[in-house]
Amino acid sequence: SRQSFILNRVVDTFIGTGHPVSSQTIAFASPYPISSATVRNEMGALEDSGYLAQEHQCSGRVPTDRGYRHYLNCGIEVQESYQEYFLTLSEHFSNRYKKREDLPGLVEESAAVLSELSRQLGLLFVPDAGQVLSKEPRLGMKTEGLRYLLEQPECQDASKLRPLVKAIEEKESLKKWITAHAQLNASQAFVGTEHQVEDLENYAIVTARYETGHEGGSGAIAVIGLRRMAYSKVLPIVSEMACLIGQAVRRMEEIR
After folding, report:
1. Distance (Å, rounded) from C-alpha 253 to C-alpha 246?
2. Is residue 196 domain-shared with residue 171, that is, in the same domain?
3. Which domain holds residue 43?
């Protein structure tokens, strides 16, 4: 529908710029003729329905959590292919991480790769040494990439990151929620209030789970970023990384 098209264009534009989106911007970028007045009316209807919000009377609109959910449910188009990169990374992991003693190195590099590719905060939840094959292993948490959030205009005031830093430091509630909601080798996004992690309503969390052994044990990975993160980029990265980490962890046990 026209409203769906306009809403998704608003989300795409806001993700790219971080600025409220005007009706003129959407009308100008439309692949078919549409007036800014028509777009303005439709954006008003979308605001009334809770999909968009207007921070100031004379400003453009920004997506709400409901607007982001519609955008994600529409099936976003993946903008970049990392297939060749992940094939190379898989071979690298196979050659470098072979024994249980290599697990810390795998964790360190995986966290760095996850955060660098996504340009967000990356989190890995991995089994403690000697518990890889356990059905319910104790999971340690590794984080990397907080600096990428500090580069965002919304986070220039470092105090705005305090709730996130607090959640990372306390970690248990964050770990419990992510490991409970992550799906096996399939990434999914939770935006703002959807994830119900205390004080993190201004952030989105993308999660995936990976198998660690033969008894149903598992670990998880996640990316945390602003709600306007580039989902078309982050979702496939998280899925691929979960698969690679799971393969590497299981291989360590098979050839130990």
Report:
1. 11
2. yes
3. 2-73
Q: How many domains does the structure of the chain reveal?
A: 2
Over the stretch 67-89, which tens digit does the pLDDT of each residue have?
999 999 987 777 667 888 898 99
Q: 109 with 46: CB under 8 angstroms?
A: no
- Give the pLDDT confidence of 153-212 residue by residue, as tens digits: 888 887 788 999 999 998 898 999 999 999 998 999 999 999 988 889 999 999 999 988
DSSP state of 21: B
Measured CA to CA, the distance from residue 50 to residue 18 in angstroms comes to 19
Q: Which amino acid is at 107?
A: V
| Alpha carbon distance 24, 248 (integer Å) | 50
Whether residues 142 and 172 share a domain: the answer is yes
The dihedrals phi and psi of 91, each to the nearest 5 degrees, come to: -65, -40
Q: What is the DSSP letter of 217?
A: -
Q: Are residues 68 and 87 in the same domain?
A: no
Distance, CA of 241 to CA of 243 (rounded, Å) = 5
Map residue 186 onto helix, strand or coil: strand
Q: Are residues 150 and 188 in the same domain?
A: yes
Residues 216 and 112 in one domain: yes
- pLDDT reading at 13 higher than 70: yes
**177 contacts 197 by C-beta, under 8 angstroms:** yes
